[in-house]
TrEMBL record:
Keywords: ATP-binding, Nucleotide-binding, Transport. Belongs to the ABC transporter superfamily. GO terms for molecular function: ATP binding; ATP hydrolysis activity. One of its GO terms (biological process) is peptide transport. InterPro entries: AAA+_ATPase, ABC_transp_ATP-bind, ABC_transporter-like_ATP-bd, ABC_transporter-like_CS, Oligopep_ABC_C, P-loop_NTPase. This is Peptide ABC transporter ATP-binding protein. Residues 5-255 form the ABC transporter domain. It comes from Peribacillus simplex.
Amino acid sequence: KKVLLKVDQLKQYFPIKGGFFGRTVNHVKAVDDISFHIYQGETLSIVGESGCGKSTTGRAILRLDQPTSGQIHFQGKDLLRLGKKDMRRTRKDLQVIFQDPFASLNPRQTIGQILGEALAIQNVVPKENRRGRIEELLGHVGLRPESLERYPHEFSGGQRQRIGIARALAVDPKLIICDEAVSALDVSIQAQVLNLLKKLQRQFELTFLFISHDLGVVRHISDRVMVMYLGKIVEIADKKSIFEQPQHPYTRALLSAIPVPNPVQERERILLTGDVPSPIDPPNGCRFHTRCPFVMDICKTKAPELKRSTQNHQVACHIVS
Ligand code: SF4
Ligand code: MG
Protein backbone atom coordinates (compact mmCIF):
# COMPACT_ATOMS: atom_id res chain seq x y z
CA LYS A 1 0.00 0.00 0.00
CA LYS A 2 1.22 3.42 -0.95
CA VAL A 3 1.34 6.21 1.61
CA LEU A 4 -0.27 9.40 0.25
CA LEU A 5 0.10 11.64 3.29
CA LYS A 6 2.45 11.34 6.22
CA VAL A 7 2.26 13.51 9.32
CA ASP A 8 5.28 13.59 11.62
CA GLN A 9 5.45 15.06 15.11
CA LEU A 10 2.81 17.64 14.33
CA LYS A 11 2.24 20.27 17.00
CA GLN A 12 -0.34 23.01 16.84
CA TYR A 13 -0.21 25.37 19.80
CA PHE A 14 -2.39 28.47 19.78
CA PRO A 15 -1.11 31.37 21.87
CA ILE A 16 -3.33 32.89 24.54
CA LYS A 17 -2.70 36.60 24.99
CA GLY A 18 -3.20 38.31 28.27
CA GLY A 19 -2.19 41.13 30.61
CA PHE A 20 -1.72 44.81 29.76
CA PHE A 21 0.72 44.23 26.95
CA GLY A 22 -1.07 41.41 25.18
CA ARG A 23 1.82 39.09 25.84
CA THR A 24 1.47 35.40 25.16
CA VAL A 25 0.71 34.04 28.60
CA ASN A 26 -0.06 30.46 27.69
CA HIS A 27 -0.87 28.08 24.87
CA VAL A 28 -3.75 25.87 23.90
CA LYS A 29 -2.05 22.63 22.98
CA ALA A 30 -4.66 21.68 20.39
CA VAL A 31 -2.46 19.05 18.74
CA ASP A 32 0.55 17.87 20.66
CA ASP A 33 3.09 15.80 18.78
CA ILE A 34 1.14 13.37 16.62
CA SER A 35 2.41 11.14 13.81
CA PHE A 36 0.32 9.07 11.42
CA HIS A 37 -0.10 8.33 7.73
CA ILE A 38 -2.89 7.88 5.23
CA TYR A 39 -2.72 5.25 2.51
CA GLN A 40 -3.72 6.12 -1.00
CA GLY A 41 -7.34 5.21 -1.69
CA GLU A 42 -8.36 4.59 1.91
CA THR A 43 -10.66 6.35 4.33
CA LEU A 44 -8.95 7.16 7.60
CA SER A 45 -11.28 8.55 10.22
CA ILE A 46 -10.32 10.70 13.17
CA VAL A 47 -12.72 10.41 16.10
CA GLY A 48 -12.88 11.98 19.50
CA GLU A 49 -14.87 14.45 21.57
CA SER A 50 -14.88 18.11 20.63
CA GLY A 51 -11.57 19.77 21.42
CA CYS A 52 -9.50 16.61 20.91
CA GLY A 53 -7.63 18.17 17.98
CA LYS A 54 -9.28 16.38 15.08
CA SER A 55 -10.36 19.50 13.17
CA THR A 56 -7.09 21.22 14.01
CA THR A 57 -5.25 18.31 12.40
CA GLY A 58 -7.35 18.70 9.25
CA ARG A 59 -6.77 22.44 9.15
CA ALA A 60 -3.01 21.97 9.49
CA ILE A 61 -2.96 19.60 6.53
CA LEU A 62 -4.95 22.12 4.49
CA ARG A 63 -2.59 24.82 5.77
CA LEU A 64 -5.50 26.91 6.97
CA ASP A 65 -3.32 27.31 10.06
CA GLN A 66 0.47 27.24 10.13
CA PRO A 67 1.49 24.45 12.52
CA THR A 68 3.85 25.17 15.39
CA SER A 69 6.17 22.36 14.32
CA GLY A 70 6.32 19.05 12.53
CA GLN A 71 6.21 17.79 8.98
CA ILE A 72 3.39 16.93 6.63
CA HIS A 73 4.56 15.01 3.60
CA PHE A 74 2.12 14.78 0.73
CA GLN A 75 3.23 12.86 -2.33
CA GLY A 76 6.80 13.18 -1.10
CA LYS A 77 6.78 16.96 -0.56
CA ASP A 78 6.72 18.66 2.84
CA LEU A 79 3.63 20.87 2.70
CA LEU A 80 4.88 23.07 5.52
CA ARG A 81 7.96 24.04 3.60
CA LEU A 82 6.41 24.65 0.19
CA GLY A 83 6.61 28.15 -1.27
CA LYS A 84 3.44 30.03 -2.21
CA LYS A 85 3.52 28.99 -5.85
CA ASP A 86 4.07 25.28 -5.17
CA MET A 87 1.46 25.36 -2.44
CA ARG A 88 -1.10 26.84 -4.82
CA ARG A 89 -0.45 24.01 -7.24
CA THR A 90 -0.67 21.41 -4.48
CA ARG A 91 -3.77 23.04 -3.03
CA LYS A 92 -5.99 21.59 -5.76
CA ASP A 93 -5.04 18.07 -4.70
CA LEU A 94 -6.28 18.77 -1.16
CA GLN A 95 -9.95 19.63 -0.85
CA VAL A 96 -12.30 19.96 2.09
CA ILE A 97 -15.98 19.43 2.79
CA PHE A 98 -17.28 21.12 5.94
CA GLN A 99 -20.26 20.37 8.13
CA ASP A 100 -22.55 23.18 7.11
CA PRO A 101 -22.86 23.30 3.34
CA PHE A 102 -25.03 26.43 3.46
CA ALA A 103 -22.41 28.44 5.34
CA SER A 104 -19.78 27.65 2.74
CA LEU A 105 -21.98 28.37 -0.31
CA ASN A 106 -22.50 32.00 -1.35
CA PRO A 107 -26.31 32.52 -1.23
CA ARG A 108 -26.21 35.07 -4.06
CA GLN A 109 -24.46 32.78 -6.51
CA THR A 110 -26.12 30.10 -8.58
CA ILE A 111 -24.76 26.59 -8.35
CA GLY A 112 -23.30 27.11 -11.83
CA GLN A 113 -21.41 30.18 -10.63
CA ILE A 114 -20.21 28.45 -7.47
CA LEU A 115 -18.83 25.48 -9.37
CA GLY A 116 -17.59 27.71 -12.19
CA GLU A 117 -15.58 29.69 -9.67
CA ALA A 118 -13.97 26.54 -8.30
CA LEU A 119 -12.95 25.61 -11.84
CA ALA A 120 -11.71 29.12 -12.63
CA ILE A 121 -9.53 29.43 -9.52
CA GLN A 122 -7.53 26.38 -10.42
CA ASN A 123 -7.95 26.92 -14.14
CA VAL A 124 -8.38 23.19 -14.68
CA VAL A 125 -10.90 23.43 -17.51
CA PRO A 126 -10.85 25.93 -20.42
CA LYS A 127 -13.63 28.50 -20.13
CA GLU A 128 -15.66 27.22 -23.09
CA ASN A 129 -15.82 23.71 -21.59
CA ARG A 130 -16.82 24.77 -18.11
CA ARG A 131 -20.59 24.48 -18.49
CA GLY A 132 -20.26 20.91 -19.72
CA ARG A 133 -17.90 20.09 -16.88
CA ILE A 134 -20.33 21.57 -14.33
CA GLU A 135 -23.20 19.47 -15.70
CA GLU A 136 -20.96 16.43 -15.50
CA LEU A 137 -20.05 17.22 -11.87
CA LEU A 138 -23.72 17.61 -10.95
CA GLY A 139 -24.36 14.22 -12.50
CA HIS A 140 -21.56 12.64 -10.45
CA VAL A 141 -23.23 13.80 -7.23
CA GLY A 142 -26.74 12.84 -8.32
CA LEU A 143 -28.14 16.30 -9.15
CA ARG A 144 -29.92 17.28 -12.37
CA PRO A 145 -28.05 19.48 -14.86
CA GLU A 146 -30.75 22.20 -14.56
CA SER A 147 -29.62 22.66 -10.94
CA LEU A 148 -26.87 24.95 -12.14
CA GLU A 149 -29.35 27.80 -12.67
CA ARG A 150 -30.63 27.58 -9.10
CA TYR A 151 -29.53 29.10 -5.79
CA PRO A 152 -28.35 27.28 -2.64
CA HIS A 153 -31.54 28.09 -0.66
CA GLU A 154 -33.59 26.17 -3.22
CA PHE A 155 -31.93 22.91 -2.16
CA SER A 156 -32.36 20.64 0.85
CA GLY A 157 -29.51 20.09 3.32
CA GLY A 158 -28.54 16.81 1.68
CA GLN A 159 -28.57 18.36 -1.79
CA ARG A 160 -26.46 21.27 -0.59
CA GLN A 161 -23.93 18.84 0.78
CA ARG A 162 -23.89 17.18 -2.66
CA ILE A 163 -23.08 20.61 -4.11
CA GLY A 164 -20.25 20.93 -1.59
CA ILE A 165 -18.97 17.55 -2.74
CA ALA A 166 -19.23 18.59 -6.41
CA ARG A 167 -17.22 21.70 -5.62
CA ALA A 168 -14.50 19.67 -3.92
CA LEU A 169 -14.51 17.24 -6.83
CA ALA A 170 -14.33 20.00 -9.45
CA VAL A 171 -10.56 20.32 -9.35
CA ASP A 172 -9.86 16.60 -9.46
CA PRO A 173 -8.35 16.29 -5.97
CA LYS A 174 -6.40 13.39 -4.48
CA LEU A 175 -7.30 13.84 -0.81
CA ILE A 176 -10.60 15.14 0.51
CA ILE A 177 -10.86 16.11 4.16
CA CYS A 178 -14.45 15.69 5.34
CA ASP A 179 -14.86 17.62 8.60
CA GLU A 180 -18.15 16.55 10.20
CA ALA A 181 -19.40 16.45 6.61
CA VAL A 182 -22.65 14.63 7.37
CA SER A 183 -23.14 15.66 11.01
CA ALA A 184 -25.84 18.23 10.25
CA LEU A 185 -27.94 15.82 8.17
CA ASP A 186 -30.79 13.49 9.15
CA VAL A 187 -29.72 9.88 9.61
CA SER A 188 -31.40 8.65 6.39
CA ILE A 189 -29.79 11.45 4.36
CA GLN A 190 -26.44 10.76 6.06
CA ALA A 191 -26.46 7.23 4.71
CA GLN A 192 -27.15 8.46 1.18
CA VAL A 193 -24.33 10.99 1.31
CA LEU A 194 -21.91 8.44 2.81
CA ASN A 195 -22.78 5.98 0.05
CA LEU A 196 -22.23 8.70 -2.53
CA LEU A 197 -18.80 9.43 -1.05
CA LYS A 198 -17.92 5.74 -1.25
CA LYS A 199 -19.05 5.54 -4.87
CA LEU A 200 -17.00 8.62 -5.80
CA GLN A 201 -14.00 7.23 -3.93
CA ARG A 202 -14.00 4.12 -6.14
CA GLN A 203 -14.77 6.06 -9.30
CA PHE A 204 -12.06 8.71 -8.87
CA GLU A 205 -9.54 6.89 -6.65
CA LEU A 206 -10.03 9.40 -3.88
CA THR A 207 -8.51 9.26 -0.44
CA PHE A 208 -10.54 10.55 2.50
CA LEU A 209 -9.57 11.90 5.88
CA PHE A 210 -12.91 11.70 7.64
CA ILE A 211 -13.26 13.77 10.81
CA SER A 212 -16.27 12.93 12.96
CA HIS A 213 -17.48 12.63 16.52
CA ASP A 214 -20.09 10.09 15.41
CA LEU A 215 -18.97 6.47 15.70
CA GLY A 216 -21.98 5.21 13.74
CA VAL A 217 -20.93 7.30 10.76
CA VAL A 218 -17.29 6.32 11.20
CA ARG A 219 -18.24 2.66 11.22
CA HIS A 220 -20.04 3.11 7.91
CA ILE A 221 -17.27 4.85 5.99
CA SER A 222 -13.83 4.00 7.40
CA ASP A 223 -11.06 1.61 6.51
CA ARG A 224 -8.99 2.64 9.50
CA VAL A 225 -9.81 4.67 12.57
CA MET A 226 -7.63 6.96 14.67
CA VAL A 227 -8.89 7.99 18.11
CA MET A 228 -7.70 11.27 19.60
CA TYR A 229 -7.93 12.62 23.12
CA LEU A 230 -6.72 16.07 24.23
CA GLY A 231 -4.37 16.60 21.31
CA LYS A 232 -2.88 13.09 21.35
CA ILE A 233 -3.49 9.92 19.36
CA VAL A 234 -4.56 7.18 21.78
CA GLU A 235 -5.29 4.38 19.31
CA ILE A 236 -5.11 3.64 15.57
CA ALA A 237 -6.28 0.43 13.93
CA ASP A 238 -8.31 -0.98 11.09
CA LYS A 239 -12.03 -0.49 11.57
CA LYS A 240 -12.78 -4.07 12.54
CA SER A 241 -10.19 -4.07 15.33
CA ILE A 242 -11.34 -0.72 16.67
CA PHE A 243 -14.95 -1.79 16.85
CA GLU A 244 -14.49 -5.42 17.85
CA GLN A 245 -11.26 -5.34 19.86
CA PRO A 246 -10.81 -1.80 21.13
CA GLN A 247 -7.84 -1.68 23.50
CA HIS A 248 -7.52 1.83 24.85
CA PRO A 249 -9.84 2.56 27.80
CA TYR A 250 -10.93 5.79 26.11
CA THR A 251 -11.88 4.03 22.87
CA ARG A 252 -13.74 1.43 24.92
CA ALA A 253 -15.59 4.20 26.73
CA LEU A 254 -16.59 5.87 23.46
CA LEU A 255 -17.87 2.54 22.15
CA SER A 256 -19.73 1.84 25.38
CA ALA A 257 -21.78 4.92 24.68
CA ILE A 258 -23.21 3.59 21.40
CA PRO A 259 -25.64 0.70 21.03
CA VAL A 260 -23.96 -2.64 20.42
CA PRO A 261 -25.27 -4.24 17.21
CA ASN A 262 -24.51 -7.77 18.31
CA PRO A 263 -25.35 -8.45 21.96
CA VAL A 264 -23.21 -11.63 21.95
CA GLN A 265 -20.19 -9.37 21.78
CA GLU A 266 -21.41 -7.20 24.60
CA ARG A 267 -18.28 -5.82 26.17
CA GLU A 268 -17.65 -4.67 29.64
CA ARG A 269 -19.03 -1.16 29.52
CA ILE A 270 -16.89 1.77 30.56
CA LEU A 271 -18.70 4.93 31.46
CA LEU A 272 -17.00 8.23 30.85
CA THR A 273 -17.25 10.49 33.86
CA GLY A 274 -16.19 14.08 34.25
CA ASP A 275 -15.33 16.60 31.56
CA VAL A 276 -12.40 16.71 29.19
CA PRO A 277 -9.65 18.66 31.01
CA SER A 278 -8.42 21.93 29.52
CA PRO A 279 -5.95 21.66 26.62
CA ILE A 280 -4.19 24.70 28.10
CA ASP A 281 -2.94 22.69 31.03
CA PRO A 282 -3.49 19.03 30.15
CA PRO A 283 -2.92 16.38 32.87
CA ASN A 284 0.64 15.08 33.27
CA GLY A 285 1.45 11.57 32.22
CA CYS A 286 -1.41 9.96 30.37
CA ARG A 287 -3.84 12.73 29.50
CA PHE A 288 -6.76 10.39 30.07
CA HIS A 289 -5.71 9.50 33.62
CA THR A 290 -8.19 11.86 35.30
CA ARG A 291 -11.08 9.93 33.74
CA CYS A 292 -9.67 6.43 33.37
CA PRO A 293 -11.15 3.64 35.54
CA PHE A 294 -7.87 1.68 35.28
CA VAL A 295 -5.51 4.48 36.30
CA MET A 296 -2.26 3.39 37.99
CA ASP A 297 0.47 5.46 39.64
CA ILE A 298 2.69 5.39 36.58
CA CYS A 299 -0.15 6.88 34.47
CA LYS A 300 0.03 10.11 36.48
CA THR A 301 3.66 10.79 35.69
CA LYS A 302 4.68 8.93 32.55
CA ALA A 303 2.98 9.54 29.20
CA PRO A 304 2.37 6.23 27.41
CA GLU A 305 3.84 6.03 23.92
CA LEU A 306 1.84 4.97 20.90
CA LYS A 307 3.05 1.40 20.42
CA ARG A 308 2.18 -1.40 18.07
CA SER A 309 0.13 -3.99 19.95
CA THR A 310 -0.62 -6.26 17.00
CA GLN A 311 -0.21 -5.91 13.26
CA ASN A 312 -2.05 -2.73 12.17
CA HIS A 313 -2.99 -1.79 15.70
CA GLN A 314 -1.29 0.91 17.75
CA VAL A 315 -2.26 1.93 21.28
CA ALA A 316 -0.93 4.44 23.82
CA CYS A 317 -1.70 2.94 27.23
CA HIS A 318 0.43 1.47 30.03
CA ILE A 319 -1.86 -1.51 30.55
CA VAL A 320 -1.71 -2.57 26.90
CA SER A 321 1.60 -4.05 25.80
FE1 SF4 B 1 -5.74 4.58 31.73
FE2 SF4 B 1 -3.18 4.51 32.47
FE3 SF4 B 1 -3.92 3.54 30.10
FE4 SF4 B 1 -3.95 6.15 30.55
S1 SF4 B 1 -2.17 4.83 30.50
S2 SF4 B 1 -5.52 4.97 29.54
S3 SF4 B 1 -4.59 6.25 32.67
S4 SF4 B 1 -4.49 2.77 32.13
MG1 MG C 1 -14.43 20.10 14.91
